[in-house]
Amino acid sequence: MATDAPSPPGSLDTSPAQPTTEAFVEVQESAEFGELRRTYRSFAFPLTVAFIAWYLLYVLMSNYAGGFMGTKLFGNINVALVFGLSQFATTFLIAWLYARYASTKLDAKAEAIKSRMEADA
Fold first, then answer.
1. CB 30 within 8 A of CB 117
2. Does the reported pTM lie above 0.70?
3. With contact defined as beta carbons under 8 Å apart, do 27 and 113 qualify?
């Protein structure tokens, strides 16, 4: 939370000056910040919807397609186990994809906004 109050006398505050509330609002309303949010949302929202649909498919098939989910693939490994383990694999895949996406598309824009706000404070 941004505060406009100075440090009490005699305190050794070595932290950088914080931007004012007005500065945060100004940045939030800027086109650059809007572009950063759009870039983030264009990745996060579709993948979130896809993962939730994938998870609900697993849950629904477990409830209503017991025969199919119980089909043995090899040994004691059945379709349900493969689906369940795939949920973990998908989670890690999405996290890795997001880390790559953020480092190539989001981090530079966010750092530019942050640096400018810290310089203006």
1. no
2. yes
3. yes
